[in-house]
Amino acid sequence: MEKFLIPFFTATFISLFMTPVAKKIAYKIGAIDIPKDSRRVHKKPIPLLGGLAIYIATIVSAVIFLPLDKTLVSIIIGGSIIVVSGIIDDSMDLSPKMKLVFQVVASLVLVLGDVKIDFITNPFSKENALLFLKGFSVPLTIFWIVGITNTLNLIDGLDGLAAGVAMISSLSFVFVAYNANDLMNGSSTSIMIISAIIAGACLGFLPFNFNPAKIFMGDTGALFLGFMLSAVAIEGVMKSVATIAIVVPIIVLGLPIFDTTFAIFRRMLNGKSIMEADKGHLHHKLLQRGLSQRQTVLILYLISGVFGICAVAISKANSRQSVIIAGIVILFTIFFAVKLGLIDMRKGEDSSNRDNGRK
To answer: How does this protein lie in the membrane (predicted)?
Structure first.
């Protein structure tokens, strides 16, 4: 246990120390979120770049506690590329196309470091037959990394939400990797350590970011955390021969993945562009029911924790059990999404509505 607690608390203290520094840098370079309309939750200018503290805490701790091999180097370089794009966007705005370019380049760096999805396991096969992706490996890996990188960014709409969800997801990966250790011949120790480091970096940032926030993580932090979690999912679970290799990461990251998926379907059903922002995300629905920011965020923490517990349960189950549990989780998620109105056909909704969150 000490093997994971020391990296966790090291990252926490570095993040605690660096966040005020990041705040000063944000003011110096003009990375400030100024509310320009009534749709914003916050009413006064708030510095961005909190993600810089998370980045520094994660990278420094990783270099201290993990072997500097090809995989870690590719994660560091890829993560740094993402952070550069985030700093540019937080200080002077970056077009969606350029963001995508940065993300694809960062994904390719991971692929070069052998962080890629090489195969998937057939859960209905008695012998856990592997389906090798061959030429589809790189495209699927890029799709996964870019997708997860952006899903976490899209839920960064309330004080402390993205950081808390990323922390809970990281801790879930610690336990999932622990369960998969035997299947991966003990190689998941590094994944448990990096997951603990990411969780610690988020924890150190949260005192400054929880409502009322003194600083936002910005794209710098949200994109970086999404990128890191996508890499952890590949290295820690998807390279396992277990049948849960594909299912578990999706459940661990269930809150951002399902919220984004429902948003895409909602916009398609309403004849809108999937890139067009709206106020139909889960945190919007909870706020519309009269909950405060803090209450909403705590409820979403709870939901993310439930997803994490389910993922850990799946990682311990056999093939059939894991498929059944995953199926039940997905069905319940869809049921509650419909009940809350995350999927609807309200064509009359003002298409000019923007997410009330900040990145």
So the answer is: Multi-pass membrane protein
Residue-number span of the structural domain to which 125 is assigned: 2-243
pTM of the full structure = 0.88
Phi, psi of 33 (to 5 degrees): -90, 105
Distance between CA atoms of residues 299 and 291, nearest Å: 10
DSSP 279-304: S-SHHHHHHHTT--HHHHHHHHHHHH
Asked if 216 and 26 touch (Cβ cutoff 8 Å), the reply is no
Closest CA to 276 of 286, 285, 266: 266
- Whether 258 maps to a domain, the answer reads no
* Whether residue 176 has pLDDT greater than 80: yes
| Residue-level pLDDT at 281 | 78
Binding positions for Mg(2+): 153, 219
Domain count within the chain: 1
- 351 occurs within a structural domain: no
Q: How confident is the model at residue 357 (pLDDT cuts 50, 70, 90)?
A: very low
Q: Which burial class, exposed, middle or buried, applies to 304 when counting CB atoms under 10 A from its CB (0-12, 13-18, 19+)?
A: buried
Cα separation of 120 and 328, whole Å? Answer: 21
Q: Which residues belong to the annotated binding site? A: 153, 219
How does pLDDT run across 113-171, given as a tens digit for each residue? Answer: 999 988 777 666 656 567 778 889 999 999 999 999 999 888 888 899 999 999 999 99
Provide the Cα torsion 349, 353, 357, 359; round to 10°.
120
